[in-house]
Transposase
Amino acid sequence: MPRTSRTIVPNFPHHIVQRGHNRQTVFASDADFQHYLDDLRTVSQALEVKVYAFCLMTNHVHLLLDPGAHPDQLAKLMKTLAGRMTRYRNKLEGRSGTLWEGRFKSSPVQIDSYLLECCRYIDLNPVRAGMTAHAKQYPWSSYPYRTAESAQNWLAPLPGTKHWGTGPTRQKRYADFVAEGVSPERYDQIHTAIQRNQLTGTQKFVDEIARIIGKRLEQRGPGRPRKNIEAGSD
C-alpha cells in the first residue's frame, strides 16, 4: 500500500509520531528523557509552536503540536529535536549514525471534537503499553503537567476547556477525563490516522481542510492489525 504524503495545515494541531531507526531505543535513561523534554520546551517556545500534549516512550515519541500561521515551523521543530537528540546520544555512546526514522508521521487534528481525545490517547500510551497501571505513574508525558499545579507548566492551554474552571478544579477535570479512557472506536480512528498521515476528525473536518489547502485528503479505513512493538504498539 502506498504511503500517504504528509500534510501540515496552518493553525491546526497535529498529532506527531517519530520512532527510533529500526525501532531502536532512543531513551535509555532518565537523563535521556529529560534532555529531549528540555529541548522540546526551549525549541517550541523559540519557534512559537504550541505544545498541547506529549509522551516520550522508550523508542518513539508522541507529540500534539500547533505550528500556528507558519506550518513550516513544525518540520523545523522536529528536525531540530531529532538532530539535537542524535548528537547527544552519539556523543554519549562514542558513535555516529542516525537515531531516528527518516520521516515523522503527522495527522492534522480537528480542534473542537478531537483535540482532547488525542491528548487523552497520548497520555494513556504508557498504560496501553503495560508500562504503568495509571497515567499519573509515568513522568515523561504531559499528564503530570495537566493534573498538578506547577510553575514549570509550559504547555499551551487546551481549547474548549474554559468551563473546567481553574487550579485544582481544572486539574481534576482533566484527570477524570483521562480516567474515562479512549473508546475502541476513537482509538482505531486516531491510531489509523497517525499511521497513514491522514486527518483525525469528522467528515465536516475533511471538507474544511479541503477548502483550506485546495485538495481533498483521502481517508481510508483501518487495515491489517499491526504487531505489538517494544514500549507500545502505537
